[in-house]
Design a protein that fits this description.
There is one protein chain. By secondary structure, the chain is mostly helical. It has one domain: Phosphate transport system protein phou homolog 2, domain 2 (Methane Monooxygenase Hydroxylase, Chain G, domain 1). It has seven helices and no strands. α5 runs antiparallel to α6. The chain is elongated and about 60 Å long.
């Protein structure tokens, strides 16, 4: 009887396809952001790539939210779906905020620790994409998901260390002689560290979902 009832209801949307599409944009955005921090002649183009990824990710987020509203049967709780895609979107939003600051202050060169943070962001995005790709079979992949989410948390701890080291370095080099350089550098470090924070939020939400469904 219930099978017949389900057959009449709207089918489960392709949530995992949309999640994976968004995760791909996270990686592409992180690649572009890392390229921004490398400087060079393509800096403006790479900033534009980050903005483009963020815009496309917003569209995917909207598709997920609309799908939740019109779908009778979802793969897990509706609130979990909307929370997860919103947290993923926060990460690429923060990437855009970073390049917005770069453009605003017309930055062209970046400290080595900023570049290392860019590499950490890319690794976090790649790990997050791997996590999202496994969600469709979370029971089978629970152990691997646990390892990956822990890896992302460890990268967030590393990003905190880089952030603090970077602030100390710019304070040492610019703190007294060039207050504006210190303020701008601090803002960039803050934005970069927040990107990794957003990936940790995604990892924590996935861990919550695993606990609820295993």
């Amino acid at each position: 009887m219930f099978g017949w009832f389900k057959a009449l209801m709207p089918k489960e949307e392709r949530f995992f396809v949309l999640f994976n599409r968004h995760a791909e944009l996270l990686v592409r955005g992180a690649e572009a952001l890392k390229a921004v921090l490398d400087g060079g002649d393509q800096l403006a183009e790479n900033c534009a790539r980050v903005v483009q990824c963020e815009t496309q990710a917003d569209q995917v987020t909207l598709e997920v939210i609309q799908a939740v509203r019109r779908t009778f049967i979802t793969p897990f709780e509706r609130s979990d779906i909307t929370d997860l895609i919103s947290l993923m979107d926060d990460a690429v939003d923060q990437m855009r905020q970073t390049v917005k600051t770069v453009v605003l202050f017309e930055l062209r060169e970046f400290d080595p620790l900023m570049q290392e943070l860019g590499a950490t962001i890319l690794r976090s995005a790649q790990k997050t994409a791997e996590v999202i790709a496994l969600l469709g079979d979370m029971k089978k992949e629970a152990d691997r998901l646990h390892v990956l989410t822990q890896d992302i948390r460890q990268m967030e701890e590393h990003s905190d260390e880089l952030h603090d080291q970077g602030l100390k370095e710019i304070l040492r080099t610019h703190g007294r002689a060039d207050a504006m350089a210190f303020i701008i550098g601090s803002a960039i470090y803050e934005h970069l560290e927040k990107v990794v924070d957003r990936f940790e939020n995604v990892a924590n939400r996935v861990s919550d979902i695993l606990i609820e469904h295993l």
